[in-house]
Amino acid sequence: MSASVTTLVNQPYKYGFVTDIESDTLPRGLSEETIYAISAKKGEPEFMLEFRLRAYRQWLKMTEPTWPDVSYPPINYQDIIYYSAPKQAPKKQSLDEVDPTLLETFEKLGISLSEQKRLANVAVDAIFDSVSVATTFREKLAEHGVIFCSISEALKEHPELVKKYLGSVVPAADNYFAALNAAVFSDGSFVYIPKGVECPMELSTYFRINNGDSGQFERTLIVAEEGSSVSYLEGCTAPMYDSNQLHAAVVELVAMDNASIKYSTVQNWYAGDVNGKGGIYNFVTKRGICKGKNSKISWTQVETGSAITWKYPSCVLVGDNSIGEFYSVALTNNHQQADTGTKMIHIGKNTRSTIVSKGISAGQSKNSYRGLVKMNPTADGARNYSQCDSMLIGSNAQANTYPYIQVQNEGARVEHEATTSKIGEDQLFYLAQRGISAEDAVSMMISGFCKDVFNQLPMEFAVEADKLLSLKLEGSVG
Amino acid sequence: MIVDNAPTVLSVKNLTATINDTPILKGLNLEIKAGEIHAIMGRNGSGKSTFSKILAGHPSYEVTGGEVIFEGQNLLELEAEERARSGVFLAFQYPVEIPGVSNLDFLRASYNARRKHQGLEEVDPFDFEDIVRDRLKVVQMDESFLDRSVNQGFSGGEKKRNEILQMALLEPTLAVLDETDSGLDIDALRIVAEGVNQLATENNAMLVITHYQRLLDYIVPDYVHVMYDGKIVMTGDKELALELEAKGYDWVDELQPVGV
Fold first, then answer.
1. Whole-complex ipTM
2. Considering its fold, how many domains does chain B have in total?
């Protein structure tokens, strides 16, 4: 172990490869024509085209938000490719007909789509650039009445459901990036859990950006009917490019009476190199509404990738006694910037929310927690508990906390706790004196720091997440 | 105990060291054989704690001259963690707190790092619990300590007992106890000292660094050294500690040649 906790070297990003595949790509740039073209390619119902155009026209009038604590050169929205899909025959019912190159790509990412090798209890929707290429276990889920498919298929097969809920949680013009998404989104996952059904397996979507010049704009919609429950996980990776790619996604969750949705994310987009060149701009709007009484929405996120993360998974607690949760680990290294947190909007009576945020900053990175807890006048007996902990590694990283608390109900109770700690040389020396290497020491301390959040992840992924963090920090001390 | 023909565990010759270019050790000599307990006494600032940290490989100090041979190998060439795995143990004066890391996980990681180095198989969590439970008795610690974060919220006495617990697990060849008595009440002192005595064998050696004679009533040294301005200036048996206690450190000052 050398004298200080200093220079940060990123572990080579192991998902940085590019798949060589012929694509069906729209020319760069954004206009109404682009939107007509996307809509036509997808063969969408008329209402979707209108939804998109409405969003686009709103977007034109909006300005990019400047309040996040991140900085980046202006994005040229005319230089982005808004639709890029691997050329293959229309999506097939059988996975055997999916282009083997694509299956191989996902295999390489550790996501096996083939019948024999896939995880026994996890259904996967695989999204490659702009489109979904395969969804596993559809039939088995259908036996339980669960719909799990790409949103494009949902628009064809269940247009009434999509029409009813799309934009109901995140309106078309909710914010700049959500409006952009609404205008150009090309695919995403759709989940519908009928009344009283406990989804028999974990559902998951794996997002892969492959094209260096395209953006990824996906939209996920999950509806849990009365008394149902589902656990959903998303994972994301992208190749290493010197340029930045834009990822502007929208996720909407709807939970009815006594329903529960658990949404977990392990985000490992390419973060750029040690000097901050390249990487994904991850500008995402995620929001769930606890519409019914006693409903529950729980967000768990492990954010380790992206050059910039701008993301606030939120809960609108309308139903009485509904519960919102947010468990987050955000790790930034090198020149990464993250401005992430949550919003808990309490409207119903006796609504409860819990926020546990763990930020880890290393290198020259900047990691901010930004969260809003709002107690509306109607939220009698509402309670919130927030805990925001930051850990610094080295002396050039930044950690900030911006909690916003608005209480308009006298009976509501809000608690906020925050701590900042630093992995210090004295700790590393102590552990070294007990035979534990600096790398193992950091990984032990990080795992300990993140335990409360990892405990919330489905088991298969908790182990992965733990490993991922250690990998990301490898070489960050010494 | 002094054993005839015992092998040398530690040999320090003319050791000099600095921190931020300030000389702290100025030609220290010391030889410790297996089975022996040595005590180093001295005023605050005489360099005795620095010496313990240098033996352990603390990165803030720079060794500028001399040699340190531990069981025949050049200790100064080894990284801190390699020294630990080879059997050099430092019981810290101020054990640090490590929030979020359970004492049990930490102890096992440490235990396995040492075993791996010795070419032994690593121990799984279940077997380790049996091993650690047995060692807890050495320092009269309760099992509940294992589930708590390393040293977090421990009292001064609990922290020191935790250090001795680690020593009991790792079975070092050379244990350096840096002011282990500081901040301990008499009961805690007794427990810690009894733990240390239980661990002393003819195959290991101990170096007890202390400011006061008090600890040496419990851990009886074979040799007592007095450190002054970065050097060992007097060596004797346990009577020297008593004499020092009676006459005070000014006595040592007066014995030094003028100009040192």
1. 0.96
2. 1
